[in-house]
DNA sequence: GAGGATTATGAAAACGTTTGCGGAACAGTG
DNA sequence: CACTGTTCCGCAAACGTTTTCATAATCCTC
């Protein structure tokens, strides 16, 4: 029977009144004393309910609740060897392309035992590696979004912690990717259909994987259709980067421009409008990303949309399943078709 | 002398060759063995150099380096009782007003021993408290940016961890604030000077501190100048929230509108432009925040600018100094004048 | 050169958990 | 009743640090 133990309840340790919880100071030992059991039993009651008597468990839980007991995470991490944190590093929080990605990852982990560390590299490679180093000590895994660090550096990081890559490939870590090809192909076909034969690519950061990717696919699609492609840039991948691009693209004598992303496309559009240049009359513009603002300008931006939400959840799920074998396995990567990009034709493209 | 110890160097423990670091597996004990000292000495060499012999220290450091030793943070946290993490909770990462704030805080802590946990509540109060609860266990302090949680809840949080508030006051925690008054006053004076006598306030979230604050000051400034103020909303504090606001403000028969923030102002502007309404000809618009996009629209937005960067650094510094007594004390709060807002007159305000 | 002050180091306790091992109580089986 | 198996629980070790305390070695001073 457990009756005697119940009887012992109020006898030893703390007074049994409904005292206010003592501000995160209650240890597992305090709970154990109050409940008249050993710390082991408390731990088991909390973590493996099937190992303790139902009545004992009820009592332990009640005592834990009364004391406002919260297990000390440092102690748990120490013995378990896991932090139950994951890190997320993105190039720029302020870039509206990454916001949905971040939200997707955070939303995914909100319902798990994991908390996420988010950091912003300010588009700077050195900061990126410093942040990665700092995070490694505190997390079980790292989601790297469009990382710029070198391959060898990436390998070093992956050697120390679980890594999943978004928008970047590597032999050393799993990655989730967008399939740029469909959207890019549609964009070039669209521009071609409108009669454009001389176009420009407004490049983003030279060491960016997506920049290379976009340039490559664009080159191929243009070549295939006999479109001449001029390379401009690189430009800062921001709105203001588009200002400079606008002036240079005008001077380049092309009739259409593909921007590295929506921000520079929007910057180009703004600058052109300010200079009194007609869009799409004198120049057609195609963006990349479909950030929220893209649909809100005048004219609204023709752009290539990405299923960022699917991408972020895929990244999070991949990480989760490598960290916690009990996690919903799901297909480690959704079928590529889910991550296909597609062209959104709006107002900034027109006949030459 | 220490010569004998040097001689002992390669004799015991690990082979002395430049082995590759063993993937974060090296403990302080391994370093101690390799260096031929006790773990205590290694700890001291790392944390309180003045307590160990210079030569010993050099040797320890070299061994630590060779093994790629990284102290285990969980163990440190456990004994020290501090995590050396701080949490930062904001309503919405995608809101361009918060991005600079976040970056400011992250930049501040980048050069300290602290790492920052960032989370986004999606403007949802319940999520906010859940995130706060989850973070409390993992951080030494929490920076709450424009929190919406109730006062009692806030007190409960502040009882468990150090808290600093941004854009919200409370008896239970220090806060850093923007002084809305100057900017607001300038805005009303500006609109009054242009001849407007019937204006509207496009409200933000009803439970938001800044919303109340703005409404109050606006009401006072308008009353003082004999301007009639209509209350519209609340609206979602986003671009799309402005769409609905635009239609309602047109129906309200006013000649000028103060938006809760730039996003809704921009939304209004966009919707109005789409409906063919002249801005500022038929309606003048004043925003709040001076987000980057505000200067890039056509016409550019008249808005009240905030020294967000100063605000975020003040918040971070306040937190830092309460956490680490050794931190640069600085004035706990910069003089209010530094945090004053001011009106930026651009293109969306004109004579009635 | 004896004594006290100073410096450098090691041993061990402590932080708060989890978990392997073993033992006690009890149930079932022959 | 003896034996085996099961259920429940406590003891103690372990995780990797930091820090107190004690001790040995060295230095200084008269």
UniProtKB/TrEMBL annotation, chains A, B:
Keywords in alphabetical order: DNA-binding, Transcription, Transcription regulation
Protein source organism: Actinomadura darangshiensis
Residue ranges with Low complexity bias: 13-22
SMART domains named among the record's database cross-references: HTH_LACI
Keyword Iron-sulfur attributed: no
Protein name, per record: LacI family transcriptional regulator
Keyword Metal-binding assigned: no
Span list, region Disordered: 1-22
A Gene Ontology molecular function term of the record: DNA-binding transcription factor activity
Domain HTH lacI-type stretches: 26-80
PANTHER family on file: LACI-RELATED TRANSCRIPTIONAL REPRESSOR, TRANSCRIPTIONAL REGULATORY PROTEIN
């Amino acid at each position: 029977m457990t009756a005697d133990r119940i009887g012992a309840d109020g006898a030893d340790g703390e007074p049994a009144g409904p005292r206010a919880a003592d501000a995160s100071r209650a240890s597992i030992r305090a709970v154990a004393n109050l409940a008249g059991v050993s710390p082991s039993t408390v731990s088991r009651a909390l973590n493996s309910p099937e190992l303790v008597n139902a009545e004992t468990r009820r009592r332990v839980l009640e005592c834990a609740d009364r004391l406002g007991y919260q297990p000390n995470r440092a102690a748990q991490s120490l013995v378990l060897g896991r932090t139950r944190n994951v890190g997320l590093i993105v190039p720029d929080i302020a870039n509206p392309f990454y916001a949905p990605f971040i939200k997707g990852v955070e939303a995914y982990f909100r319902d798990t035992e994991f908390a996420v560390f988010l950091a912003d590299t300010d588009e700077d490679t050195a900061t990126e590696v410093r942040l990665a180093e700092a995070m490694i000590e505190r997390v079980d895994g790292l989601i790297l979004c469009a990382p710029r660090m070198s391959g060898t550096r990436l390998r070093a990081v992956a050697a120390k912690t679980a890594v999943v890559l978004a928008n970047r490939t590597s032999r050393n870590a799993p990655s989730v990717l967008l399939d740029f090809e469909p959207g890019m192909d549609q964009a070039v076909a669209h521009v071609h259909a409108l009669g454009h034969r001389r176009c420009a690519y407004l490049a983003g950061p030279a060491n960016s994987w997506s920049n290379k990717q976009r340039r490559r696919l664009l080159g191929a699609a243009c070549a295939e259709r006999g479109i001449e492609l001029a390379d401009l840039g690189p430009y800062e991948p921001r709105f203001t980067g588009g200002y400079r691009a606008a002036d240079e693209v005008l001077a380049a004598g092309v009739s259409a421009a593909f921007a590295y992303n929506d921000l520079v496309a929007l910057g180009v559009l703004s600058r052109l409008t300010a200079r009194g240049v007609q869009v799409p009359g004198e120049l057609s513009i195609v963006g990349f990303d479909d950030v929220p603002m893209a649909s809100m300008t005048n004219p609204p931006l023709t752009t290539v949309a990405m299923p960022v939400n699917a991408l972020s959840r895929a990244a999070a799920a991949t990480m989760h399943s490598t960290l916690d074998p009990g996690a919903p396995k799901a297909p480690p990567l959704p079928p590529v078709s889910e991550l296909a990009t597609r062209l959104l034709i709006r107002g900034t493209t027109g006949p030459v």
